[in-house]
């Protein structure tokens, strides 16, 4: 029996779920002990490796999150908000680190995560990559340095399967820009432009969304003034960067007390 931290992956059949299972299985710092899918899914009862079209990994896909979490030290969760809220309560019961890469939360749903964090470590981020988190910090710094003569636009692009917009990362960048200017994003957010919208309001933070093909993830933060533009950019070409970041968060959380954390905490930013 290994002494390495044991990890469960929820949403195991999804793009990120499969990448996480592969990444964990190849790691020498932890071990995969559970793969969770919704009840009735075709993969239930199959070995996760076989279900993904590869070799047997010795982990059977299950819909019993409670049983799986009970044997784990960490859960990595890239699913949907309502499922994540349920998983948070179960992770709290198991005292397992809950790494949340799920996006698309409402403010009310985020509040519903808090009770579970009193009993377990929650690490939640709109994006788990090191590069994106550095971009977020740079965005805040640049927004703080520049006044409202510079319009701020967040432009993001993802594959055509993505269901939420703007992306969690785009919103994270918008929050960083707003924080740099000392305002709340909810007060200055400009999204969903269509038709005769009128001129852009000074001080607003705009969002533009692209969906197409197999784009993994691209994010630009543009600071545009008369005569000049500054563009901060991150381009992801492989989902493994998100899996590596989530795994780093799961291992980092092993030595922390209950509470809510983000990737800035994990990376010491």
UniProtKB/TrEMBL annotation:
Pinpoint the Dihydrodipicolinate reductase N-terminal domain residues.
6-128
In this chain, NADP(+) is annotated as bound at 38
Q: Active site annotated at which positions?
A: 158 (proton donor/acceptor), 162 (proton donor)
Q: Name one GO cellular component term.
A: cytosol
For (S)-2,3,4,5-tetrahydrodipicolinate, which residues are the binding ones?
159, 168-169
Question: Which residues are noted in the entry as NAD(+)-binding?
Answer: 11-16, 37, 101-103, 125-128
Give the catalysed reaction(s), semicolon-separated.
(S)-2,3,4,5-tetrahydrodipicolinate + NAD(+) + H2O = (2S,4S)-4-hydroxy-2,3,4,5-tetrahydrodipicolinate + NADH + H(+); (S)-2,3,4,5-tetrahydrodipicolinate + NADP(+) + H2O = (2S,4S)-4-hydroxy-2,3,4,5-tetrahydrodipicolinate + NADPH + H(+)
Pfam families in the cross-refs? DapB_C, DapB_N
Q: What keyword terms does UniProt attach to this protein? A: Amino-acid biosynthesis, Cytoplasm, Diaminopimelate biosynthesis, Lysine biosynthesis, NAD, NADP, Oxidoreductase
Pathway listed for it is: Amino-acid biosynthesis; L-lysine biosynthesis via DAP pathway; (S)-tetrahydrodipicolinate from L-aspartate: step 4/4
Q: Dihydrodipicolinate reductase C-terminal domain spans which residues?
A: 131-267
Q: What GO MF annotations does this protein's record show?
A: 4-hydroxy-tetrahydrodipicolinate reductase; NAD binding; NADP binding; oxidoreductase activity, acting on CH or CH2 groups, NAD or NADP as acceptor
Q: Where in the cell is it found?
A: Cytoplasm
Might you give the EC number(s) for this enzyme? Answer: 1.17.1.8
Q: Which InterPro entries match?
A: DapB_C, DapB_N, DapB_N_CS, DHDPR_bac, NAD(P)-bd_dom_sf
Task: Supply one GO BP term.
Answer: diaminopimelate biosynthetic process
Transferase in keyword set: no
What does the subunit comment say? Answer: Homotetramer.
Annotated NCBIfam families: dapB
Name the family.
Belongs to the DapB family.
Functionally, this protein is described as follows: Catalyzes the conversion of 4-hydroxy-tetrahydrodipicolinate (HTPA) to tetrahydrodipicolinate.
This chain belongs to the protein called 4-hydroxy-tetrahydrodipicolinate reductase
Q: What is the lineage of its organism?
A: Bacteria, Pseudomonadati, Pseudomonadota, Alphaproteobacteria, Rhodobacterales
Gene name linked to the record: dapB
